[in-house]
Write a structure and sequence with these properties.
Length: about 400
């Protein structure tokens, strides 16, 4: 198992992903530490997959920020624009009130002048944030490539200065190849995704060799022998054989197709793997094989994994920490053992109560908890926020609920 430490590999801050009026993801924040498996669970349509796709930049996020390896790779601007719009509306309302006032007119005009100054400062500050967000979102890969180029030059220049003859020619070729790869490498390629549907995610007109090698070719690798060997190595790593390289996706079973998808992802040597319900479309016996394969790859390659699923039994087995999502919001986040031992949010309790038990006698006694958000919460006085009720255990609640949960669980 890769050593897990406190180094944060991925940090998601106030992520919002809206599609018109639909809030698919609404103000979600979490971080993933290097070497861990972070499980993201919830019912269909709760925003799990949208969160994963936003992280890997398939979607341009509405607002919030995503940091990977300490560098901001995604940034939305809508939140800043909404803040400016809201302040402008408040200023217009105050100006209208001041123009109509007959009493306390001087006081209102002084207040209006103060409000105009505050509005002007807010616009300047938010425009700077918008500009910085656009730059980071657009140029994060270019900045990462600059870092790689500088690192490659620093490594090879002393070696080239000291080498002569055939050794110098070999080094020059190697240096040229690595420099070309460094120029084309994007930071986002250090995050790879395994998609839910192994049939739809593979191009039916490409051979397995072409599918797995595509990322290497895009990254500027031209050595065909190296590419072929890398493809064969990946096939054997995921439990397939070299002979499969010349075949097409339709010639494989669902489990084999998912293994090809995994090979395509790990060939890029990612730091973070986003597994979007990688076993939900597979037979139960094949599910176990794919999960065990991911576990083996995690140990061998030192991967960090964001594991998206709705099967809590699988997530419990595979994850170090779990985040529970409901209607685009993160409602609870804790270490796996803690979450299963002390599920605090009513929705989490509802999900856990739905897990079928292998014992028929225990299954007869199992009581299904029905979650009704309108009946379970009263947010008319105060809206909820994600709060740390004990170290490492976060729950979406307001002051009243926080006090109730702490009393109920003795926190």
């Amino acid at each position: 198992m890769p050593e897990q430490n406190d180094e944060v590999l991925l940090r998601v801050e106030h992520l919002c992903q809206y599609f018109g009026p639909t809030k698919a993801v609404d103000d979600v924040s979490f971080d993933i530490k290097k070497g861990e498996v972070f499980g993201l669970v919830g019912e269909s349509g709760c925003g799990k997959t949208t969160t994963g796709r936003s992280i890997i930049k398939i979607y341009n996020i509405t607002s919030g920020s995503i940091y990977f390896k300490g560098q901001r790779i995604c940034a939305g601007t809508t939140g800043y624009k909404i803040e400016i719009k809201k302040a402008r509306k408040e200023l217009a309302e105050l100006a209208k009130e001041a123009s109509k006032a007959t009493e306390n007119k001087a006081e209102l005009e002084a207040k209006l002048a103060e409000k105009k100054k505050a509005y002007s400062d807010l616009v300047i500050e938010n425009r700077k944030k918008i500009s910085a967000a656009k730059f980071d979102h657009k140029h994060s890969d270019r900045e990462y490539a600059k870092t790689l180029i500088a690192r490659t030059k620093a490594e090879y220049e002393p070696k080239l200065a000291a080498a002569t003859g055939e050794e110098l020619k070999t080094l020059q070729k190697k240096y040229k190849d690595e420099l070309r790869v460094a120029k084309k490498t994007k930071l986002i390629t250090k995050i790879q995704m395994i998609f839910q549907d192994p049939i739809a995610s593979l191009d039916p007109r490409m051979t397995v060799r072409e599918i797995i090698a595509e990322g290497l070719v895009i990254n500027g690798i031209k050595d065909q022998n190296y590419i072929d060997e890398k493809v064969y190595e990946m096939l054997e790593l995921v439990g397939l054989v070299r002979e499969h390289a010349g075949r097409y996706p339709h010639e494989f079973s669902g489990g084999q197709r998912q293994r090809i998808g995994i090979a395509r992802a790990v060939v890029m040597q990612p730091d973070l793997l986003i597994a979007d319900e990688p076993v939900s479309a597979l037979d139960v016996s094949i599910q176990a094989q794919v999960i065990n394969l991911l576990n083996e790859l995690r140990e061998r390659l030192g991967l960090t994994i964001l594991f998206i699923a709705h099967d809590l039994s699988v997530v419990k087995y595979f994850s170090n920490r779990i985040g529970v999502m409901y209607y685009g919001r993160m409602v609870e986040l804790a270490e796996t053992d803690e979450l299963f031992a002390h599920p605090v949010h009513p929705y989490t309790r509802s999900l856990l109560s739905a897990i079928p038990l292998p014992d028929p006698h225990a299954e007869k006694q199992r009581k299904r908890i029905i979650y009704n958000a309108l009946a379970a919460h009263d947010y008319s006085k105060q809206q909820p926020t994600l709060r740390e009720i004990i170290p490492g255990h976060f729950v979406l609640c307001n002051d009243e609920e926080e006090a109730k949960y702490k009393e109920e669980f003795g926190f």
